[in-house]
Specification:
- This protein is 27% helix and 25% strand.
- It has one domain: Rossmann fold.
- With 260 residues, it is α/β, with parallel strands linked by helices.
- The longest helix has 18 residues.
- The strands form two sheets. It has a seven-stranded mixed sheet, sandwiched between helices. A three-stranded antiparallel sheet has the order 6-7-8, with no helix packed on it.
- Helix 5 packs across helix 6.
- The protein binds S-adenosylmethionine.
- S-adenosylmethionine (SAM) binds next to helix 3 and strand 2.
């Protein structure tokens, strides 16, 4: 057992803060742009949602046509809230109350999503254990699509107040930041969300050790918002969030947008 059964912020509150505009125009748009660009059509796929929280993306992937979701989440109250919110999905989503690094899969997820999952490991060793568990759930030729804290954004974090949150960095943001915490204070959430900074190369090595290849995708803005200067601060320098794609073996998905 890796840790207690609570992540430290409230599940019901968390569901409500997912309605902030940037979740829709940046987070959801970037994730589904990646799926579309890879050529993934969810129809009939068995998928994973790791660090599934209150199940927003589990439900969305069923909505897009997936035939079943394995949702893995370590916070017991998140799982309870997710089950309540997913009542109409009649068993299409299997919620497993575990921390991902304590699980070993059977390689039956053709696609897996991790929205903020890899913002939690605190060290190279921990991220390696997360990635090895992720890889165990993913089928050969499958893909993991992640979204989360941009560990390259270390400018201070108070500029994001107009979007409904601030990021507070633990200490020296110029020096060695591997393992440094960053707290997200989100309007409507009583307790902050604590994430940890790891270097992009640390993630790359962790996926490589797990037999997967990592590609990065910067956060994108939905076309409906193009030209709206309200978003300028969000995207100035490094955006506060970023996305990743990790493939297992030779995938049939179209990676040409991420060709190195
Ligand atoms: C910021 S929330 C995001 C929830 C959901 N993915 C979403 O985007 O709405 C992060 C979630 O990851 C869960 N989590 C953190 N570390 C985890 C781990 N090691 N294994 C499984 N879940 C984890 C937390 O409990 C929390 O519910």
């Amino acid at each position: 057992m890796s840790q207690a059964n609570s992540i430290g912020y409230d599940a019901a509150e968390y569901s409500l803060v997912k309605t902030q505009a940037w979740r829709l125009w940046v987070e959801q748009y970037t994730l589904f742009w990646i799926f579309r660009t890879l050529g993934i059509n969810f129809d009939g796929l068995r998928v994973g949602d790791f660090g599934s929280g209150t199940g927003l993306y589990s439900r969305m992937m069923i909505g897009y046509g997936a035939k079943g979701v394995l949702a893995i989440e370590g916070d017991r109250k998140m799982v309870t809230q997710a089950k309540q919110e997913s009542a109409a999905y009649h068993g299409l989503i299997t919620y497993q109350d575990s921390w991902i690094q304590d699980t070993t899969g059977i390689g039956d997820c053709q696609v897996a999503l991790g929205s903020y999952l890899l913002s939690y490991p605190k060290s190279p060793e921990e991220v390696t254990s997360y990635c090895s568990a992720i890889a165990s759930h993913i089928a050969d030729a499958g893909v993991y699509v992640g979204f989360g804290n941009n560990t390259e954004e270390r400018t201070g974090g108070h500029q994001y107040k107009p979007y409904g949150f601030t990021k507070v960095h633990s200490a020296d943001t110029m020096g060695d930041c591997e393992g440094a915490w960053v707290d997200w204070h989100i309007d409507g959430l009583t307790n902050p969300i604590r994430n940890y900074n790891l270097y992009p190369d640390t993630y790359r090595r962790a996926f490589e050790d797990a037999g997967m290849q990592l590609f990065w995708q910067e956060a994108l803005l939905h076309q409906s918002q193009t030209g709206n200067s309200d978003w300028d601060t969000f995207f100035e320098g490094e955006a506060p969030v970023t996305a990743m794609i990790a493939t297992k073996g030779e995938t049939p998905w179209n990676l040409s947008a991420w060709a190195m």
